[in-house]
Structures are given as structure tokens and as C-alpha cells.
Amino acid sequence: AVRTGAGIGPGGAHLYLAALDGTAETSAGLTVAELASLLQSFGAVDAVNLDGGGSSTFAVREPGDSVVTVLNHPTAGAERPVANGIGIFTRP
């Protein structure tokens, strides 16, 4: 299934985010146990499985760019409107 997860490294020094595809065209996706194992392999010691399916969208705006790029393949081929999300921003 399509999965979104977040994990924290030892002492809270690192945040790991993953949005993993699971559409028939791209891959079978992950089970919750596989997501946990993946986040652990990144270095996470605590993790959470977030909403999945069409709510799983991983987007970035590179420094200096004015556009946001979606990096994964959301279910149904487009982002789904959601009420909340996780944002990471740099200081100017």
C-alpha cells in the first residue's frame, strides 16, 4: 500500500520522512512492518505511520526555485486536498 512515515533518530537529532508509492503502475508499496524496517534502516529509533493512499504526497521546493516539485506518484495521479501536513523550512 501507499505509505507515509516519519521517524526520529537517537536524541532527536535527525528527522526521517518517507512517502512511498504503491500504485499498480509503479510498485506494490509497503506493509506497515516494511515501513518500520525502512525507517529503522535510515537510523530512526521511533517512528509513526501517517496517512496513506492519495494523501501521501512528498513535495520539495529547492533553494532558489519558485516552484514545488512532487517527488512521488500520488494515488490517482494527483495530490489530494488534506487538512494538515508536515512542512520543513530553512531560515533565510
Topology (elements, then pairings):
Elements: E1 3-8, E2 15-20, H1 32-42, E3 46-49, E4 59-60, E5 69-70
Antiparallel strand pairs: 1-2, 1-3, 4-5
Query: Got a strand count?
Result: 5
Cα Rg? 14 Å
What's the arrangement of strands in the largest beta sheet? 2-1-3
**Which class best fits the helix and strand makeup?**
alpha+beta
Main beta-sheet annotation = 3 strands, antiparallel
| Mean pLDDT over the full residue set | 86
- Could you tell me the strand content as a percent range? 15-25%
- Summed up, the helix count is 1
Overall spatial form: globular
End-to-end separation in angstroms reads: 37 Å
As a percent range, the share of helical residues equals 10-25%
Low-confidence stretches: none
Count of discrete structural domains: 1
Order of helices and strands: EEHEEE
How would you describe this protein?
The chain is of the alpha+beta class and 92 residues long. The chain has one domain. 12% of the residues lie in helices and 22% in strands. The protein contains one helix and five strands, in the order ββαβββ. A hairpin with a 6-residue loop joins strand 1 and strand 2. It is globular, with a radius of gyration of 14 Å. The model has no long low-confidence stretch (mean pLDDT 86).
